[in-house]
């Protein structure tokens, strides 16, 4: 896996999970793929986590705006490991896996719409639905659900970590270019 430059992360965590736990779970997952933070193109989670200190710190420390999706969108994404416990607390059976697949799908759709003969063959990172200081969650905007990437885009379905304080964090890692390869209308062969 070394050398890949097209990874996206879906992140889920308990309320008030420390930044150190979130950073550690991400670093461990990337290490499994022989990848680093430099390989990450996008990060996504559920809009319930937009106010989490750890998420805000992740954006500040690592330089990526996190794409926050509403539970109703995440609940529509087929995932390999749905959880009724996660559904109980968030309204969706998956946060990390579903968020990763949605942001990959959104990037591929943006790529397909922007593709021209002169366009680069890489899928662009989609615009964020909730910048750091955004006050309007994506669920209140009139935007449509992106087509999620297939489950085969997931390189790591769920990497979990329980921090020293007992708080849990989960990361799912997907290939950002997976959907672009599957979209024939781009006219690109990868």
Automatic annotation (TrEMBL):
Lineage top rank: taxon: Bacteria
Sequence segments annotated as region (Disordered): 118-139
Pfam families the record matches: CbiG_C
One of the GO BP terms on file: cobalamin biosynthetic process
InterPro entries, alphabetized: CbiG_hydrolase, CobE/GbiG_C, CobE/GbiG_C_sf
Domain called CobE/GbiG C-terminal: residue spans: 7-104
Full protein name: Cobalamin biosynthesis protein
Organism whose genome encodes this protein: Lautropia dentalis
